[in-house]
Write a structure and sequence with these properties.
The complex is a heterodimer. By secondary structure, chain A is mainly α. In chain A, 79% of the residues lie in helices and 0% in strands. In chain A, helix 8 runs antiparallel to helix 9. Chain A is globular. The model of chain A has no long low-confidence stretch (mean pLDDT 86). Chain B has one domain. In chain B, helix 4 packs antiparallel against helix 5. The longest helix of chain B is centred in the C-terminal third of the chain and has 19 residues. The chains are: A mainly alpha, B mainly alpha.
């Protein structure tokens, strides 16, 4: 019994150690998530609440910019539902290992399931609950901590909005999107999403982002099927 | 209102994360949906950039908007620099240099 406990504690810390580099990589995004929220009218507590409860970097930045742009409640919810839909795929892939765990273990794994935790665990042949918890909790604490730093920074620097921090969202997203474009179909999807988003937003169509994204996705799949690209 | 939004979004994100970990759920997403999900990240992230690029200037202002040129520079950075973090830092430096030059 004590052997088992010791080894699961070891796997917990192993997971925490393995995710440390990924924690460092999200430092600027965490700070940004905190400072952007404050500079776009969220209270400090709400800004930290976003990280504590939603815990999804891209989704948080999108929420902040949509709230600032005056988007409606339903439009924001729909956008976040779709933008975090890649988690469905992560869960599908981790399902084999996680779905056999009891509910009280499945729930925390689900809450901590981020792009980074998925990236860390998917390549491993063996990962278990303790390993996932160590990595997931370590990443969670880092993310919330960086957000707090961002909030403090925003509070001490006046007129943060004048610094055009919103471009850092564009710069960050471009750095994420460009390496994702490996096939012609993705390029078509991205170009159509961009053009539609520009046109629909300039016409003040509500839900412009969701419509542009969905149409881009549909076009990408259609192109992939027409060209016979491997899935 | 903001708090209601935060908790609703937390529920939505958790739903997406948990749904397919539920063992009682029989899983067979239609292949078209699974294939479309692979494109959800690039397409939606791109769509989100649209309103930020437009800013207050509208479609006709895109050609004279520093955001447009900085975004093109960022694409170049992402293509050349394989490290994501470094690529963001360089493109931000380019953006602020451009703003400075424009006064």
């Amino acid at each position: 019994m004590s052997d088992l406990a010791a080894s699961s504690r070891q796997r917990f810390w192993l997971g925490a150690g393995h995710i440390l580099p990924l924690c460092l990589a999200v430092l600027p995004w965490g700070v940004l998530a905190g400072s952007m929220a404050v500079s776009h009218g969220f209270s400090p507590l709400q800004s930290i609440g976003l990280s504590v409860f939603v815990f999804a970097g891209a989704a948080q930045l999108v929420t902040i910019s949509m709230v600032a742009a005056g988007s409606g409640f339903i439009a924001i919810c729909l956008t976040i539902l779709i933008i975090t839909a890649q988690h469905l795929l992560y869960a599908l892939i981790l399902r084999e290992h996680v779905s056999s765990l009891p509910l009280k273990k499945r729930l925390p794994v689900a809450f901590l399931l981020t792009d980074e935790l998925f990236a860390l665990s998917v390549g491993k042949r063996s990962y278990d609950f303790a390993y996932l918890m160590g990595a997931g909790l370590c990443f969670y604490l880092a993310w919330v901590g960086f957000t707090v730093v961002g909030v403090l920074l925003a509070a001490s620097v006046p007129n943060l909005a004048d610094y055009h921090l919103d471009f850092s969202i564009v710069a960050t997203f471009i750095a994420i999107i460009v390496p994702m474009i490996k096939r012609f179909s993705s390029l078509v999807g991205v170009v159509i999403s961009l053009l539609l988003s520009l046109v629909l937003s300039s016409l003040d169509v509500s839900g412009a982002i969701v419509i542009a994204g969905l149409v881009g996705m549909l076009c990408a799949v259609s192109v992939a099927r027409l060209r016979g690209e491997a899935a | 209102m903001i708090w209601l939004l935060i908790f609703t979004l937390a529920g939505i994100v958790f739903f997406n994360r948990y749904l397919l970990l539920e063992p009682r759920l029989p899983i067979r997403l239609p292949s078209f949906v699974r294939q479309a999900l692979q494109y959800s990240a690039p397409c939606l992230l791109t769509a989100i950039c649209g309103p930020i690029l437009l800013g207050t200037s509208g479609l006709s202002g895109l050609a004279s908007n520093p955001y447009t040129y900085a975004a093109l520079f960022s694409i170049g950075c992402a293509l050349v620099i394989k490290n994501m973090l470094l690529s963001v830092l360089v493109s931000l430096a380019g953006f602020y240099a451009l703003l400075y030059l424009l006064g």
